[in-house]
Design brief:
38% of the residues lie in helices and 13% in strands. The chain has 13 helices and nine strands. The strands form two sheets. The protein has a seven-stranded parallel β-sheet with strand order 1-9-8-7-6-2-5, with helices on both faces. A two-stranded antiparallel sheet has the order 3-4. β6, α6 and β7 form a beta-alpha-beta unit. α1 crosses α8 and α5 packs across α6. The N terminus is likely disordered. Pfam families: DUF7379. InterPro entries: AB_hydrolase_fold, DUF7379. This is Triacylglycerol lipase.
Length: 338
């Protein structure tokens, strides 16, 4: 789940006015969460004791770049998340392009990694996104085996492609997921609950008219869908290595942060999270650890430069460098013979 996920919240209020909808306030239930979320809040794992499920807490391992990184044998595929893109050109050649993987692809390429960036429909269903991911890999990899590194929902696309589509001509050696909601998101439950089933069709219609994007992704990110439908039907491929990372922020996000609301809702039920995905939900396969003090956008190098500058002024230099993180993933893949 990405920062763009908050867009659907912003659309909700204008949509009510456009469609002249009569809105009946939804009674608040445990931060507005659904009954599914409230039942899961009773899970004994939700005591928020870090040693129980944070795995290795990664504090400053990726604060600076190392001199040496090994290069994996096979190409790396970068798979973006919800509302993502590979490259976005807003004004043709007049303005620089915006890259989802900000500086990450270039850094990997400079270390002699062969890198493939893919683009899938921004908010379509996992099934549609996975099919497009397969087409992109097949066209670019030319029969080579690949290692996939996926951010957020991109990890679900990759898992579905590997497990269900099994596309001819696409051979995956490993999948590394970064803050992927493998077990769903309390915030997705919250949005579905607050909007309500009666208003969802109208809101989806407004979303499609305004953005031109489909809406299949949104209800697939709920905890119920992921745990009761997606995961049971999407087993791991024994021929593929699965690794995962999670992340968490320590303090309540500031007033203007896109994660102000979502962080609190998720923390109240699932515990530590990066603003959109909890540490618990991020875990799949071999869990490599929890990035400490890192939010969902920091993970793709869309960090708040003002925040980092302020930290330096206060004598607290940043402890996370996204470039160093992805170079280390490539180094890990190389050491694993992938």
């Amino acid at each position: 789940m990405e920062a763009g996920k908050a867009v659907i919240v912003a659309v909700a209020v204008p949509a009510q006015r456009m469609l002249n909808l009569k809105v009946t306030p939804t009674p608040r239930r445990y931060f507005g969460a659904s009954s599914t979320c409230r039942r899961q809040s009773l899970d004994p794992r939700n005591k928020f004791a870090p040693k129980e499920y944070l795995g290795k807490e990664i504090v400053d391992d990726y604060a600076i770049l190392r001199d040496q990184y090994e290069t994996p044998e096979n190409p790396i595929v970068l798979a973006h998340g919800l509302l993502g893109f590979a490259e976005l050109k807003l004004a043709g050649s007049f303005l620089p392009s915006i890259h989802y993987w900000h500086g990450i692809k270039d850094a990997l390429s400079r270390r002699n990694c062969e890198v493939i960036t893919t683009t899938v429909p921004p908010s379509s269903s996992v099934e549609q996104r996975a099919a497009e991911l397969a087409r992109g890999i097949k066209a670019r990899a030319q029969g080579k085996s690949v290692n996939i590194i996926a951010h957020s929902m991109g990890g679900l696309d990759a898992r579905y492609m590997i497990s269900q589509l099994k596309p001819a001509g696409v051979r995956v050696k490993s999948l590394v997921t970064v803050a992927t909601p493998h077990h769903g998101s309390t915030f997705a439950d919250y949005l579905m609950d607050e909007i309500g089933p009666d208003r969802l069709p109208s809101l989806y219609n407004v979303w499609e008219r305004i953005t031109g994007f489909e809406t299949g992704a949104f209800n697939q990110l709920t905890k119920r869908y992921m745990t009761e439908d997606f995961n049971p039907k999407t087993p791991d491929d024994p021929e593929v290595r699965y690794f995962s990372y999670g992340a968490m922020v320590h303090e309540k996000p500031p007033l203007l942060s896109p994660f102000r609301l979502s962080h609190g809702i998720i923390y109240g039920i699932e515990g530590p999270n990066d603003g959109l995905v909890s540490v618990q939900s991020s875990q799949w396969g071999t869990y490599k650890g929890t990035l400490s003090g890192v939010n969902h956008l920091d993970l793709i190098n869309w960090s708040n430069r003002f925040r980092f500058t302020f930290q330096r002024w206060m004598g607290r230099p940043p402890t996370f460098n996204a470039i160093a993180f992805y170079l280390d993933i490539a180094d890990m893949l190389a050491k694993e013979g992938l």
